[in-house]
Write a structure and sequence with these properties.
Strand order of the largest sheet: 3-2-1-4-5
Number of helices: 19
CATH architecture of the largest domain: 2-Layer Sandwich
Largest sheet: 5 strands, mixed
Oligomer: single chain
Helix content: 55-70%
Number of domains: 4
Order of helices and strands: HEEEHEHEHHHHHHHHHEEHHHHHHH
Structural class: alpha/beta
Length: 404
Amino acid sequence: MTAAAAEAIADQKVFGGVDSHAETLHVAVISDNGGHLADAEFATTTAGYAASLAFLAAHGHVLAIGIEGTASYGAGLTRVARSHGYRVVEVNRPDRAERRRIGKSDPIDAYAAARAALSGRASAAPKDDTVAGIRALHNAARSAIKARTAALNQISHLLIAAPGTIRAAYGQLKGADRTDALARLRPTGDAVHIAVLTALKSLARRVKELTTEHDALTKALDTHVTQHNPGLRAAYGVGPDTAAQLLVTAGGNPERMRTEASFAALCGAAPVPASSGKTSRHRLSRGGDRAANAALYRIALVRMSSDTRTREYVARQTTAGRTKKEIIRLLKRAITREIFRCLTTTVTVPAIADLRPRRQAMNITLTAAAQHFGVWPTTISRLERGLSRDDSLARAYRDWLHTA
């Protein structure tokens, strides 16, 4: 290659596109005016990542790389490219209409990813690795509870068709009492009774083991979530599971979310215009991350049942003629606004570590403190242990302890 040609390539501005798979990456390069330059396939190994970046750089100055699956098959290349200073954007797979029009292959998808980076249609920064541990713990905890639910359902189905003596002995038991009784079984009787009782005992022991596993994972998840974002974890009605899901949805880098409205749309909590002609209305969004939407739904239910301000709001909206579904939609949108603030800014959580030692030093019982504020003793206990957050009650409680 002549010096002039090398200089021309160095001055050329290009965009990269990557179609990622479990074992291979297909990389395409286009010029800044959309012309196809080259494409090649590389392995999903350290050497393959280095070779793919060298392939891109050999065609000019890389302005951006569009990668499909930045949090799955393309995670390795995304990590390496960002560590080398390349701008990486997350690309969604082409929609069905485009695939029907131009077909489907690895080179086609790679060039489509490059064009998405060039046009600006793909502009979202990929998630960083700061929530990778939370994602792993959250997935493990969710899978444990799903397996536990499956085992409990199997126990119920076995008891329905079990011999009468077994059904009479264990069919009326519920919850942990039934699981504990079945786990202590010593199968006896004829061949059918022994087989059914053995299966029930195995399933019951599986339920107990999965319960213990889920509790341990939830405890570890709570620790990681609290360390990562104490303000989010301390928000009313936000538990370890919901906080983890919202962090996984948002990612650890808050710059991905430009506005609070975009985060609401990401969570499927933003009303979608559905107007036509003389009709002007909005409908509930059916898009976005449905797991994040489910987390918002659970937070809304907790607040509707135990938060005073939320209960008053629900009463006002009910009086105004809104249905429960509409009220929950409004609550999810309002909760999204609060969650966005917790994710993008540092929220100071009031200290509560001094409350319990001071109460105990003054020989004041939980019951006496609860009676003074007109709440249940468990409310004071959860406040002291940091299991629930109520800033106004915490301030009033601290003032009362100093003057009591």
